[in-house]
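Now for my pick.
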Amino acid sequence: MRTLALVLALATTSAAVGSVAARASRSMGVPPVEGMVRAKARAGPGEVGDGPETHGQDAHATNDASRRHDEPETLHPWSANTHPTDVAKWHVEDITGGMHRYTVRQGGTMDGRNCRSPMGCGVAREGAFLQTWESNRSVRLENVGETDVVTPWLSNGRNNFRSVAEIVASACTTGMSDADKAFALWFQEIQYRHHSAGDNRELGDPVKVFNVYGYNTCGNDAISLATLWRHAGLKAAPARALGHCISQVFYDGSWHFYDGDMHSVYLLRDNQTVAGEQDIVRDHDLIKRTHSKGILFPDTWWSDPEMCALYFFEGPVGGERGGRPDITMNMTLRPGEALVWRWGRL
């Protein structure tokens, strides 16, 4: 039996009492399992506890216009996958201290992650990933009290990506070599983003890529990945390619080439060391013998020569690469404001 716990972590600006209202909506495609938490609430799929409602302001005081943001039937592509019991649930939670946690226990044996293929590159319209089912629809967290709620966050305990430091820490562990850190950050990057149209400064920010967009182009991704390397204490610099942007990282006395956009690394002839830009410029077979463009892209006779043609620059590595490391997902919910998480699109 798989039980997923979603934790709402909240903090008030002072010890003053605040209240938040959570509205959860999900599909009833799997049987629910009830759970208990510190603050009792009406039990139901996507809700918590068992017993009377907590005291606090009435969550139903929010207007109808705000509620329409997370109606299950408006979120595609899951709008056709409905059940008569798909009814949004409400809960009001009082916050009486500086830090507060509230657990939403979601029952069932599977979730959308179980029904999704691995993340592909997406550059050739083969699809970034294929997902056949999703249990969730939306969660709305609203401050219905009179005090600011600082840094509200909905977490399933798996992805802590609220800052560059957290993103790096989720991939890098104590005792890792520089080579292991570089690879771990690249591998994490290709699991949480894919190539899609768009090119602006927002998409070069790893925090926004991991938490908001989930995609960017090669130029943005090269900046995003370099930002993570630099935070881990590694040097990063641009590679020089035709119509493509990649970053290199320095460790063990040389530069190494990691393509986060095309989900590719190329090994030297020892089949262990990640090659640098000049290595693949001098030996295109390092590319030809390697699968590029992600796990979902088929092997074709034309793809490898196409990739080889991008790399021809012969010269020293120069310049630096990296973006802003100070962006975070920490925010403040003022009275009457709300955050909405959606599993789907409008």
User: Anything to note?
Assistant: The mean pLDDT is 77.
